[in-house]
């Protein structure tokens, strides 16, 4: 875990297995669309992992979102930290 992100550790110590974090501030509309779609992907495709579900969510935002939503400033700051693979 990067040293510049000590706040993440508390979530892992508390039992979180995966975090979705942003490197900079983003619009809440894009964040809501991304996270909602990610959970929809996980529900519909239980065989994929969290990272793949989020990748699909980003791709859908780019391809089907508005010009603003599809801009990389809305989806690029996010990263999945922790267990991104499918549950075994």
Give an overview of the whole structure.
Helix content is 53%, strand content 11%. The two termini are 23 Å apart. The protein has a domain at 30-80. The mean pLDDT is 84. It contains 5 helices and 2 strands; from the N terminus they run H-E-H-H-H-H-E. It has 88 residues and is mainly alpha-helical.
Descriptive labels:
single chain, 88 residues, two-stranded antiparallel ribbon, 11% strand
Task: Set out the fold topology.
Blueprint: H1 7-13, E1 18-22, H2 28-44, H3 50-64, H4 67-70, H5 72-75, E2 78-82
Helix pairs in contact: 2-3
Span between termini: 23 Å
Residue runs with pLDDT of under 50 for 5 or more positions: none
Oligomer: single chain
Total number of strands: 2
Shape: flat
Instruction: Give Rg in angstroms.
Output: 13 Å
What is the mean pLDDT?
84
Structural class: mainly alpha
List SSEs in N-to-C order. Answer: HEHHHHE
Major β-sheet strand ordering:
1-2
- The share of residues in extended strands comes to 5-15%
Number of H- or I-type helical stretches: 5
Reported for the largest beta sheet, the result is: 2 strands, antiparallel
Residues in helices, as a percent range = 40-55%
């Amino acid at each position: 875990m990067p040293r510049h992100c000590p706040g993440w550790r508390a979530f892992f110590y508390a039992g979180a297995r995966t975090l979705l974090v942003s490197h900079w501030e983003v619009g809440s509309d894009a964040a809501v669309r991304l996270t909602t779609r990610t959970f929809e992907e996980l529900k519909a495709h239980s065989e994929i992992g969290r990272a793949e579900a989020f990748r699909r969510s980003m791709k859908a935002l780019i391809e089907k979102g508005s010009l603003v939503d599809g801009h990389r400033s809305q989806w690029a700051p996010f990263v999945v930290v922790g267990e991104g693979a499918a549950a075994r």
